[in-house]
């Protein structure tokens, strides 16, 4: 299992600054979790005692409003870290992390990870930048909610998904996330009906091809 974890580390770009010996040191502190589809990793008010590294599968970060509406903050893919706000002193989780398909996840106790970061300043800087980048994305999403129409938010979301998960196929980009219209609505802070109308219009214009398995963006520039 430990050798398997070490091999998994090769898939995390932000660990690229570590030597093989440093990765072996981190390996000793890490445990492995195999999660089934729709398995909850943590809930709001759970103790923020670990940081997670997603090796395989997808993880959805979300929350629910008082009236039961889901807001999806991110859908993470292989090679990404989550639960990282524990590093900033967060004692309780504020969001839900759950798999959307079978996933393989490495996790490390927050105290162990903090000690490791203290002796590896290059990695600490990368994690700090990662946290800053995600906070910037949250701010950008809030600005969209205030200043962009619902169809514009859907188009901006597609551009984000291209950047984060898109696979280049010639001039086209393929997003393989198995997203429902409701998932897209929750990510774009709009209604399912608006998403359906917007996606249908984009399909008629030849900008995208959509099904539950993927979104093929044929004309990425048309989304700007």
Automatic annotation (TrEMBL):
Keywords per UniProt: DNA-binding, Transcription, Transcription regulation
SUPFAM superfamilies in UniProt: cAMP-binding domain-like, Winged helix' DNA-binding domain
Residue ranges of every copy of the HTH crp-type domain listed in the record: 148-221
All copies of domain Cyclic nucleotide-binding, residue ranges: 14-117
CDD domains named among the record's database cross-references: CAP_ED (cd00038)
Pfam families named among the record's database cross-references: cNMP_binding, HTH_Crp_2
Highest taxon of source: Bacteria
InterPro entries attached to this UniProt entry: cNMP-bd_dom, cNMP-bd_dom_sf, Env_Response_Regulators, HTH_CRP, RmlC-like_jellyroll, WH_DNA-bd_sf
SMART domains the UniProt entry points to: cNMP, HTH_CRP
Protein name, UniProt field: Crp/Fnr family transcriptional regulator
Organism, as annotated: Marinifilum caeruleilacunae
Organismal lineage: Bacteria, Pseudomonadati, Bacteroidota, Bacteroidia, Marinilabiliales
């Amino acid at each position: 299992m430990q050798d398997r974890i070490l091999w998994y580390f090769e898939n995390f770009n932000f660990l690229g600054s570590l030597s093989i010996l440093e990765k072996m040191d981190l390996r000793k502190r890490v445990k492995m979790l195999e999660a089934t589809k729709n398995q909850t990793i943590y809930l709001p008010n759970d103790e923020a005692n670990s940081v997670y590294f997603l090796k395989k599968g997808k993880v959805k970060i979300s929350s629910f409003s008082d009236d039961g509406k889901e807001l999806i903050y991110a859908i993470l893919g292989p090679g990404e870290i989550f639960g990282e706000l524990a590093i900033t002193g967060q004692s309780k989780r504020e969001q839900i992390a759950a798999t959307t398909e079978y996933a393989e996840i490495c996790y490390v106790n927050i105290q162990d990870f903090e000690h490791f970061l203290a002796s590896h300043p290059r990695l600490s800087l990368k994690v700090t930048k990662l946290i800053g980048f995600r906070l910037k994305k949250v701010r950008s999403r809030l600005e969209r909610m205030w200043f962009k129409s619902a169809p514009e938010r859907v188009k901006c979301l597609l551009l984000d998904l291209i950047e984060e998960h898109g696979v280049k196929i010639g001039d086209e980009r393929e997003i393989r996330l198995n997203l429902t219209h409701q998932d897209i609505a929750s990510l774009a802070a709009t209604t399912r009906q608006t998403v359906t109308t917007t996606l249908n219009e984009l399909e008629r214009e030849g900008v995208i091809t959509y099904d539950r398995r993927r979104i093929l963006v044929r004309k990425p520039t048309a989304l700007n």
